[in-house]
Amino acid sequence: MDTNAMKNWDDRGTTAEAIRAGMIDKLVYSVGKDPEHATLQDWSTALGLVVRDHVVDHWFRASHRSHEEKKKRVYYLSMEFLIGRLFNDAIANLQIEPAVQEALSTYGLELRDLLDQESDAALGNGGLGRLAACFLDSMSRLEIPAFGYGIRYEHGLFRQRFHDGWQIEEAEDWLVSGHVWEFERLEARYTIKFGGHISFDGQGNTKWHAEETVFAMAYDTPITGWQGKHVNTLRLWSSRPTEILDLRRFNSGDYLNAAEKMIRAETISRVLYPDDTTPEGKELRLKQEYFFTSASLQDLIRRYLTEHDDIRHLPDFVSIQMNDTHPAIAVAELMRLLTDEHRLSFVDAFDIVQKTLSYTNHTLLPEALERWHVGLFRKVLPRHMQIIEWIDFHHLAEVQSRNLAVSLEDVRIIGHGSEVRMGNLAFIGSKKVNGVSALHTELMKQTVFAEFHRLYPDRIVNETNGITPRRWLYECNPPLRKLLMETIGTDWIANLEKIDAAAAFATDASFKEKFAAAKHANKIRLAGVIEKKLGLRVDPTALFDVQIKRIHEYKRQFLNILETIALYQAIRRSPANDWTPRVKIFGGKAAPGYHVAKQIIKLANDVAKIVNSDPVVGDRLKVAFLPNYNVSLAEVIIPAADLSEQISTAGMEASGTGNMKLALNGALTIGTLDGANVEIGERVGPENIYIFGLTSEDVAEIRVKGYDSRATIEGDPVLSDVLRAIAEGDFSPDDPSRYHDLTDILYNSDYFLVTADFQSYFQRQRDVDHGFRDTSRWTERAILNTANVGWFSSDRTIRGYAADIWNVPSV
Ligand code: GL7
């Protein structure tokens, strides 16, 4: 291919004039509309195509470079990529916003309106999926040749609506209004097999006679790094039937059954599992995992073989990261490809596997370390079951030969003869296994992987999570971005540690005033969104207290609601006191089958209804639960937050990343010593964070010794009063017993220790009230949060992966 030819067609330029002309061209010849009849959606598509062209120029150059230089590539395998909208991200990274604005003004169009036309690609549940998206951004920023591999779900995470305060789930359809950022790759298609049986011919040939086959077809989305210097690819797989219509059935009039196989094949990439902790819908889920893992491994081996001849050198040029246990089948699938297809011995193949793959653990919750029933596993993946038996047997023999005092049962892949443990498979098949915060990694060593850690003391490493400063400050917070650029320049955008230069201005009167003004502008914007979505007016000078994340008992939104009620009761008792006005802002989805989480949402909405309409309380307290929390909404809420709620039961939140985004945007944290809160606290200093509650050691001890929540409740008049009000139906007059299940949990089985932490949380919140009243000091502390959390850039995280795990250079 003549790459010089490319230089000529990349001369469109990014001037306002070029963009203006390009837009008309795209509008007419690609969208097929004339300007008089074009809708906002049409204009948005036209501009999207213009911007995309520039991305593509950079993309091709990067791909050619990687290919020519035969660079080592990183492959990030993830069931989830919560990328959100891409339009603004591309404009920001290419730094063409002024030219775009100018071009649009000639047509009387507002950039904001066009950006709002884009649907939010919600191909993930929460933190794990968003982390994968931040990592793609950072790998591009650091010019690491990389591919993200995942599933092109036709329907991403469900849309959340409230009906009478209850969560209602609706199918999400991000592809309906067209998605300009992806390219269909008809040629990149692989066959994926399921079921059937295996035959051996006695000459060393193994054949898998599958019962069902589907195609995996690739869709590529370019991921632009800062200033477009490097662009990587997110390749998502869509499932397609290998046989189309059953014409015989169709002709006999049996239309529905004629399409049965097609529908079944397409089901695999139909929906994202809306549950972020427990693997449900077992067989389909297993098929999804194998589907995208197999397609990705086939694809990367094909690419490898276009550049190298000897498959045995794979680990020198390929590093594969398994994001959680979801792609852990990669261990067995890579073995299968290397032995059955590329004819290596099992021993040689396993050596390559262990040098190529690595695994990230994202949670200690035991239900998230996937386990499959041996029967189901053998039915869906018969060859992989054999390979896993081989690995398990040889691993066990090796462990036994080392004569160490480890529990053999704990390090088996096939547990109790009946379950395949994907966490153990991933561990054994990996070069490195990493946790996502210092505390989490330490706890991994002590709990879930304790025996493995004794066997392989060098395998577990820590890579504390991070967030991309491009999306999570530069793009989402224009007022603060502008102030920082005027004051400390632009270095922080690509090197977030440099944001520490802002610390010198924490006590500078003029900077403080501008910092507070930026926050205020963001709060006005959020107040507008709250009013539009909920019909609720909130005072932008009040403390904006934010808890945004999946709804889960361990994240303890319940604790926050109890504190809200306690505050409400206190205000009602003494309305004349000098209260610090607060707006409690919630956002988050509950897994559809998670009954308690859905009740927590309903309770928050019920409390909001009573509190918001109580004239005695007025603006002193408001509660706003914004529906359908997603990346785009986060981009509006985070810049406007004063207080960040990170209140999980200590030891249960592996890291958290919302905590980093909020701190970076100048919110102070109220939180437990859990996950990355610990490291945030170390960096911002104890005076700039509100820590409360039990530590992970306390929690572990209580779990052993037992805990009497009833005694705690009875000894705490504030908490007793709150629970009495809930139980008597003060917030659910239409159904007074609605929350008996919830209150019973606290009295009888308070596993998440809500009651145990209530008092210290309530006290810390009063410290927050007090702190916020000193506006000037609060602003200083907010500035110090922004200035001191530069370390939590995902660029730093990816540098860590590159050096400790992948062994690839980064710029
Ligand atoms: C999670 C953790 O719960 C969260 O603390 C962490 O920040 C995130 C990314 O590492 O991974 N693990 C998990 O299963 N989900 C998460 O968000 C869904």
Automatic annotation (TrEMBL):
EC number: 2.4.1.1
One Gene Ontology CC term in the entry: cytoplasm
Superkingdom of origin organism: Bacteria
Cofactors that this protein relies on: pyridoxal 5'-phosphate
Keyword Ion transport: no
Gene3D superfamilies xref list: Glycogen Phosphorylase B
UniProt keyword list: Allosteric enzyme, Carbohydrate metabolism, Cytoplasm, Glycosyltransferase, Pyridoxal phosphate, Transferase
Sequence positions bearing N6-(pyridoxal phosphate)lysine: 661
Gene Ontology biological process terms, A to Z: glycogen catabolic process
Compartment(s) of residence: Cytoplasm
GO-annotated molecular function: glycogen phosphorylase activity; pyridoxal phosphate binding
Catalysed reaction, written as an equation: [(1->4)-alpha-D-glucosyl](n) + phosphate = [(1->4)-alpha-D-glucosyl](n-1) + alpha-D-glucose 1-phosphate
InterPro entries per the UniProt record, alphabetical: Glycg_phsphrylas, Glyco_trans_35, Pyridoxal_P_attach_site
Pfam families tied to this protein: Phosphorylase
Positions of transmembrane segments: none
Alphabetized CDD domains for the sequence: GT35_Glycogen_Phosphorylase (cd04300)
Record-linked PROSITE patterns: PHOSPHORYLASE
Functional summary from the UniProt entry: Phosphorylase is an important allosteric enzyme in carbohydrate metabolism. Enzymes from different sources differ in their regulatory mechanisms and in their natural substrates. However, all known phosphorylases share catalytic and structural properties. Allosteric enzyme that catalyzes the rate-limiting step in glycogen catabolism, the phosphorolytic cleavage of glycogen to produce glucose-1-phosphate, and plays a central role in maintaining cellular and organismal glucose homeostasis.
Entry similarity comment: Belongs to the glycogen phosphorylase family.
Protein name: Alpha-1,4 glucan phosphorylase
Organism of this sequence: Hartmannibacter diazotrophicus
